Amino acid sequence: GDVAGAVQYLLSRPDIDPRRIGLIGQSQGTWIIAKGAARDSGIAFLVNISGSGISAAEQETYRTGALMQADSFSAADIARARAFQQQKFRVARTGVGWEALDSTMKRLRADSVKWFPGYGTGAAARSLAVLRLYGVLQFNYDPTRDLQRIRVPVYVIMGENDRVFPPATVIERMRAALHAGGNDQLTSIIIPNAGHALTTLQTFHGKPFRRAISPAFLQTLVGWLTAGR
Questions:
Q1: Phi, psi of 25 (to 5 degrees)
Q2: pLDDT means per 10 residues in the chain (229 residues)?
Q3: pTM for this one?
Q4: Which residues pair with 211 in a beta bridge?
Q5: Which of 152, 189, 209, 125 is CA-nearest to residue 23?
Q6: Residue 98 in 3-state DSSP?
Q7: Which of 88, 116, 183, 186 could form a Cys-Cys staple with 108, CB 3.0–4.6 A?
């Protein structure tokens, strides 16, 4: 609703070309812009930054594994955490299996497992009602249906080291969903050495100094937007 309202505001301004209004979203915002563009045929283009193409449940399961791998957890621990995530999202989607899930969470808390409740696994769901609420609002959303309704150019920008969304999978799923709807206007890029926030590590005298927005990200974003948009 906020996005639709912003678009309507821009359309009301005489200094704005209504044929050149597009949507740019980052991370979970890429799901929002897919919804917006699917419902508004006047949107001229989309830019997906670090996200979309997969469901929220799949994205969170990937994030758990990627973060744990970066912290050197064993393959067995990662598999167990991912399996827990899949169980949690299955219960959130169907409402079936709460007792078994609740028992698993109580055991994980009691055992003080190092990856629980961190690494995106969560421990706030103390009732089926709460878990189902998040299931309806977020976990169950899959952008595929919305992407299949989009007919405009789409640019997907991902960071090579993204641990929140899987870069190659996002691009592959986006391309497939858009193609299924008859849209082959997808351009994509994976920025080397950049993470989810499209930042890269800067050094000073050979030592790590700070993270800053990747210049390559800014260049490719501006370049695509100004090339006939």
A1: -135, 150
A2: 94 95 96 94 95 95 97 97 94 92 92 92 79 82 96 97 98 98 98 94 86 94 87
A3: 0.91
A4: 201
A5: 152
A6: helix
A7: 116
